[in-house]
Write a structure and sequence with these properties.
Elements: E1 14-16, H1 21-40, E2 48-53, E3 58-64, H2 86-95, H3 100-110, H4 115-123, H5 125-141, E4 143-144, E5 147-148, H6 154-169, H7 181-192, H8 198-211, H9 215-222, H10 230-243, H11 245-252, H12 259-269, H13 276-287
Parallel strand pairs: 1-2
Antiparallel strand pairs: 2-3, 4-5
């Protein structure tokens, strides 16, 4: 401790044999109070090793260190001095792996990720490795299951790795799962191309986690492909508007809150396969809003 306004450091003491964080906190508080009391009485704090009794909360002296200067170490006569050269430093740096902070900056820059996503991937190395394998696998191969690499954007892929994939695998290394990196890249690209909506894509990912495989094959086998386009959705939207006439009237009047009822009707009829954005567009078009 030292008096407020002074710049000279106070005298340090040591507390030994602390066997829990709770006792450590109580011991420090007791020693702070002891040193403050000494200084207020005009006495000096002596460098020494102290014992804290957690039952009585009393501090007693174990041994003095008045002659000890920070435990000065003696040189070992049998060990020769080592001169650290620039070559040694360069070799050590070259042998080090990419550190998380550096990797986060690179991922953010190279894949146009948000800072939060880049840090999450960088500081969980197994997620970062899987993400890069997925992103680079699509790019190196030119296509991922028929999906152009340019259609596998970095941020959506990062979102699926750190969000949906982690939600299913927990702390498991995704490289040890049945999900192949290129399969996830393909799935994300399919979502971006509106071949499958978010709900259908999550079901495809469930199958990938459980049994592996190819996303498009799973989508087709399970009938999870998105329904989009005027030809496929126009009639369904007409039915939804007719079945929800009151909601349609409110939307015509500028109240967009009932839009959910119209979209919900179409989703039920298509078992969740309709593209919500396309449904919204058609409703606006048909109601002139």
């Amino acid at each position: 401790m030292r008096r407020e306004g002074t710049t000279e450091l106070g005298t340090k003491t040591e507390l030994k044999n602390m066997n829990s964080f709770r006792f450590l906190e109580r011991g420090i508080r007791a020693e702070v109070a002891r040193q403050v009391e000494l200084l207020e009485r005009g006495e000096e704090v002596v460098q020494e090793t102290l014992h804290f009794d957690p039952r009585s909360e009393r501090i007693t002296s174990m041994r003095s260190k008045e002659e000890a200067h920070d435990y000065r170490y003696f040189p070992e006569p049998d060990l020769v001095p080592v001169a650290i050269s620039d070559q040694m430093l360069d070799a050590a740096r070259g042998a080090m792996p990419e550190l998380p902070a550096t990797r986060a900056q690179r991922l953010e820059r190279e894949f146009a990720l948000t800072r939060a996503s880049a840090r999450q991937l960088a500081f969980r190395a197994e997620l970062g490795d899987f993400f890069e394998a997925a992103a680079r696998g699509a790019k190196d191969g030119g296509e991922a299951d028929g999906v152009a690499a340019s259609e596998v954007p970095g941020q959506p892929l990062a979102n699926w790795v750190t969000g949906e994939l982690v939600a299913r695998l927990g702390d498991e290394d995704p490289a040890r799962s049945r999900v192949e990196p290129v399969a996830l890249a393909t799935l994300v690209a399919m979502v971006e191309r509106k071949e499958v909506n978010q709900g259908g894509a999550k079901q495809v990912l469930d199958r990938l986690v459980a049994q592996g495989g190819e996303p498009r094959a799973i989508m087709e086998a399970e009938g999870l492909g998105a329904i989009a386009g005027d030809d496929a959705l126009s009639g369904l939207v007409d039915e939804a508007l007719a079945a929800n006439a009151s909601a349609a009237d409110k939307i015509r009047g500028g109240n967009m809150k009932p839009m959910g009822a119209i979209i919900g009707h179409v989703m039920r009829e298509t078992q969740g396969r309709a593209d919500g954005g396309e449904v919204t567009r058609l409703v606006r078009e048909k109601l002139g809003v």
